[in-house]
Amino acid sequence: MVITVPRFGTACLAAKVLFDGLRIPYVIPEKLNNETIKAGCLVSPEEICLPFKAMMGSILECSEKGADTVLITGSCGPCRFGEYPELSQKLLKSLKKDVGMIVIDSPSAIGARELLRRIRALTGQSGRSGFAKVRALADSLRALSLADGIAAGARIAAGYEIEKGAAKKLLRECEKEVFRLTEGAAVIKALKSCRRKLRAIKTDPSKDPVKIALAGEIYSMIEPFANLYIEEKLMDRGVCSKRLITPGWWLKDLALKPLGLNSLKIKRACGKYLPSRVGGHAKETVAHAVISRKEGFDGVIQIYPLGCMPEIIAKSVLSAVQEEEGMPVLSLAIDEMTGEAGYETRIDAFLDMLEAKKKRGAGF
User: Fold this and answer.
1) Tens of pLDDT along 258-268?
2) 73, β-bridge pairs
3) What does the DSSP assignment read for 125-182?
4) Which residues contact 2 (CB under 8 A, 6 or more apart)?
5) What is the band of 253 on the pLDDT scale with cuts at 50, 70, 90?
C-alpha cells in the first residue's frame, strides 16, 4: 500500500509526520496549481463544487506517482462533501485507476467499531510496535497544533510588524524546512524554533490595523489555493486576519462530538441566528462573525465554493448579523473560473471601507 491524502493545508504536514512515524510508503501531494484544477475538472461533474475538483486533481497526480490508497475524511451533514469518497472512487474506477479509500469519519456517523477497523487498515501496514504507532499519532497531532498556532500568530503579527513581510517570510521558510524533515521529533523541534522566531519579530503595538475574520466552507478556509491565498494577500496589506476553522479545530470537534461537548461556544453564538444545523460549517460561519465582533474585529470575509448550499444559507443569515451586530460582511463565491483581479478589487474596496470607518469612528 502506498498511501496519499488530498492537498489540504497544514493537514498534509500532519499526514506526513504520521506516515513517517508509521514507516509506511506515501506520496504527499504537491501544492495545488491551475494544472491540478484542470485535471480535476476534466473528470468531475461540471456542477460539483471546487473542493471536489481540487481533491480529484490532487489524487490523480498522486496516483501517477504510485499512490494506490487515499486517506480522506467523511461527511459534514447534508453537504456534498459526504459524497466525495464514493463519487471519487467511481470516477477513479471509470478511469481504470486501481485506487482504494480509507474514509475517517465521526464515531457517531459510522460507529466506534467501524472507525477502529478503518484505522487498523492504515496502521496494519506498519511493522512498528503499538507504542511507536501511538507516538507517531501523538507527533502528528503535536505538529499540527504547532503549525496551526504559528500560522495564526503570523497572520496577527502581520498587522503590527515593523519590517513589512517578516511574518510572511517566516511562514514560508518554516513550511519549507518542516517538509524537508523525515522524523516527527525533528519536525516538532523545527516548529518550536519557528514559533520562537515569530515571537521575536519586532512589532509596533501603537498600530491600529484593520482586523478581518475569515469564515466559510472548510476546504476554502484551510487550503490556500482554494481561497486564492487570501491570508497572504491580507498580510501583504498589513491587515490582521483570523479564522476559526483549522485542521486541529476540526479534529477536536470530531473527537468531542460523540459526547455532545463539541462547539459549545459556537452553538451559543449562532443560536439566535441559525439554531438548526443545515450542513457543512454554516453554523460556524455565522458564529465566527458574531464572536469576532465581540473580539473587536472590524469585518468578516466569507469565502465559499460557488453553489455551496450550507454557505449560501449562512450568507443570507449573515445579512441579519451585519444589521443587528453592526459587523460588515463581504461574501466571496469561488470556482475554477474566478478571476483574481476582480477578486482582489472587491477585497481592496472592502478594506478601504473598513479603514475609513475606523478613522471616522462611525457605525456601519
Assistant:
1) 777 888 889 89
2) 104
3) T--S-HHHHHHHHHHHHHHHHHHHHHHHHHHHHTTTBSSTTHHHHHHHHHHHHHHH--
4) 25, 26, 27, 66, 67, 68, 69
5) confident
Is 63 among the domain residues? Answer: yes
Give ∠ CA 142-13-239 in degrees, rounded to 5.
90
Write down the pLDDT at residue 261. 81
pLDDT of residue 78: 66
Contact 7, 54 (CB under 8 A): yes
For residue 259, what is the DSSP state? G
Counting the structural domains of the chain, the total is 1
> pLDDT-derived band of residue 362, with 50, 70 and 90 as boundaries?
low
Domain span holding position 118: 3-129
Which CATH number is 102's domain given? 3.40.50
Q: How many CA atoms lie within 13 A of 3 on its CB side?
A: 22
Distance of CA 232 to the CA centre of its chain: 14
C-alpha cell at 347: 477585497
CA angle 176, 347, 216 (to 5 degrees): 70
C-alpha distances out from residue 75 to 41, 78, 106, 254, 280, Å: 22, 8, 9, 11, 8
pLDDT in tens, 121-132: 888 889 899 999
> Residue 330: phi, psi to the nearest 5?
-120, 125
C-alpha cell at 280: 457543512
